[in-house]
Amino acid sequence: MTLTEYIEHIKDELTGGVLELEIDDEVIGKMVKQALKEVQRYIDETKLIQVPFSSCIDLKDFKHSSITKVYRTEPIGDLSNNNDGISSVDPMYAQVWLAYSNGGSMYNLNNYLTNYMSYNTLLQLRNTTSTDLAFKEDKHDNKLYINVSGGNPRTIAIEYVPLFEDVDDVKSDYWIDIIQRLSLALTKRVLGRIRTYAKQTNALFTIDGDTMLEEGNRELSELREILRNNSTLFYPID
Fold first, then answer.
1. Per-10-residue mean pLDDT for the chain, 238 residues long?
2. How many domains does the chain have?
3. Same domain, 73 and 131
4. Domain assignment present for 235
5. Quick one: 65 and 133 in the same domain?
6. Kind of pairing, strands 135-138 and 56-58?
7. Whether residue 169 is found in the same domain as residue 197
């Protein structure tokens, strides 16, 4: 949804397309942006980007909220960039290919299975002493440090939570709904404060300022509680 669509949705909810509001579209737009800023810390919608591998990647111009995972991108059988003398080909995959390409011959399979088990044991030992693709993000210096236990890949894929600067960038239906509801509640609170700023005691009718303010505060409280309860982020306690 675009910013204009958010604004029109809020106006329809508050006026039914008939009444006039005391605030203009610019003020409503500010409420939508404020809602996005508040929701940003809870959003877990991720994107993937493929970059050349380095044990230390500069993140200076990379706009993101957090990095969640790092993946290898080479297909099975790519040996072009291994510099540790260890093949990236799965030996069982190679054996199956050889068996079918040689008329289905299973010659010397027992010995090969024994070697394969030794190979798996070697991989387990290597991954125990050095975790492949373990990473550490340095927020202060904008660096990403990546450890590899085997051959260095040419490229890697980084899965990250984007830093959303515009509501147009949010594509998840869930978060669009949250931003809509939060923006509406914030706008209700603004209208409630405007309508209760001054009261005329001898008026023939009253406006719904108190009701609007109460609705806005209640909806904000409920939404913030939902966000806290459903948050997938963990904060360390000293």
1. 94 87 93 95 89 92 90 62 51 56 54 68 67 88 88 89 91 94 95 82 70 93 91 52
2. 2
3. yes
4. no
5. yes
6. unpaired
7. yes
Indicate whether 139 and 61 sit together in one domain.
Answer: yes
Please give the pLDDT value at position 200: 67
Per-residue model confidence (pLDDT) at position 223: 95
Q: What pLDDT does 44 receive?
A: 84
- Residue 133 is predicted with a pLDDT of 85
Among 135, 162, 189, identify where a domain stops.
162
Tokens matching residue 169: 């960038």
> Which of 144, 162, 180 lies at the terminal end of a domain, its last residue?
162
Structural domain span for residue 18: 3-43+165-230
